[in-house]
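Narrative of activities, Objective 1.

The group set out to show that a structural description can be obtained from nothing but a protein's sequence at a throughput compatible with the screening campaign. Below is one input-output pair from the validation batch, recorded exactly as produced.
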Amino acid sequence: MLRPGGRSIHLLPCRYALFAIAARILPFSLAKRVLHVLLPESRGVVEFDVVYDRGHPNALEKAFRSAGFSNVEVECTWDQSAYFHPFFPAFLLVFGYQRVAQALGLKVLASYVVIRAER
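Output recorded for this entry:
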């Protein structure tokens, strides 16, 4: 809840990021176990079921506007999280994918969005 004139900033993962697709395809308990083995620092951080229902830039902007926010700014990033670092060949493939999606301006394939909005 924000009072009128209040400002909000959110960092949200996107539905079509590679890690989000993997999280939706794999059973969560398996995905979490694999993640904790590959990235032990994720223990205690990544412990919740994920939902990426309307998690893409256009839908998020629309949701904020329909909730009464104004001056909604959406900034995309195509950088994947550290999930792919343990497997260097996969990391290189993901890095290439990110750069192509970014160069083509494919916001729907963004990894994260930063949303700034006012009430």
